[in-house]
Amino acid sequence: MTGRSDGLTGEALRALPKVLLHDHLDGGVRPSTVLELADAIGHELPASDEASLGAWFVEASTSGSLERYLDTFRHTVTVMQTAAALRRVAREAVLDLAADGVVHAEQRYAPELHLTGGLEPQEVVDAVRAGIDEGTAEVAAAGGRIRVTQVLTAMRQSEHSTMVARLALANRDAGVVALDLAGPEAGHPAARHAAAFRTVRYASFPTTVHAGEAAGVTSIAEAVHLAGATRIGHGVRVIDDVELGPRSPEDPWGVEGARLGHLAHWVRDQQVPLELCPTSNVQTGAVTSIAEHAITPLARLGFAVTVNTDNRLMSGTSMTHEYAQLVERAGWGLDELRDAALTAAWSAFLHHDEREELVEGVLRPGYTPAGSGRHRA
């Protein structure tokens, strides 16, 4: 499928205000920073210069396997075991996102993965918060605007989810806005972490769960109905519960004749936001290409679709790059980009008045012509 540009190239795309809901802190480290931090601790890397290291991360992640993709994190996590390193990575993430036109972002990471250097879980959260505060202040001093919050991630394959849930609640008034569950989906069901989900649910605290990426619709059902997820990390495999109709030049996806299964109807009816990550989904084999990515028919069917980076280092991507790929390869135009941005803003883990200010004060003025998103706009 070829795209229509609508003049949306280069700086025009970068200038659009963006909301990023799914971005891993340890997946967005600058290659130069990985090199410097690794050198300081004597950690051997697969490449010795910035360009080669960045290329290695992308190549190693483009295997069609989620497990191989996740294995690349051993290098970034290894160099993020001190408060100073965490603070630096968080600060640089804020600066890089702001330079990419992101006005609101949620940075997620697993505190339990940053304890081998002797830090306590609370010290990890404090270090990340300090870096975010520094980066935000620098952006403001330069005349820019960005707000960045934290999402704490529990790992499917570990036994620390209840600890992470309690840590998130202890910091809910200090920038932590949700609990996440990530890691290998196959063989590690969300049901193992029911206690953690109950902990946050009874405290009226939101949850997002990685599901429907490597595993199918069953993982999505478990995330929504057992974990009580208010958003789904990825969720691209919900398309498996949709029977698309015949394709035609006027209806290239067969949306008009689509038949939704019970789960797909539930996800759409409840407008459960999908944190879709196009480039990453291609790398891990969840989809075959950007042109054939389910994000387009899902958006046209009225699902609550958002666009995200997942891991900027491993995918060699940015929000501008994700937008460009959708424009060039999937036929998106300004209307689709605006709708996804508005959906992301209304789906952010913020209070309603804060979402409203983000939409009306930042997003709508940044898109021309102004218009309404389909999702609660």
UniProtKB/TrEMBL annotation:
GO molecular function: adenosine deaminase activity; metal ion binding
Record's keyword terms, sorted: Hydrolase, Metal-binding, Nucleotide metabolism, Zinc
Ranges for domain Adenosine deaminase: 17-362
Coiled coil: none
Span of the signal peptide: none
EC category name: hydrolase
A Pfam family reported for this protein in Swiss-Prot or TrEMBL: A_deaminase
Enzyme Commission no: 3.5.4.4
Family: Belongs to the metallo-dependent hydrolases superfamily. Adenosine and AMP deaminases family.
Official protein name in the record: adenosine deaminase
Higher taxonomy: Bacteria, Bacillati, Actinomycetota, Actinomycetes, Micrococcales
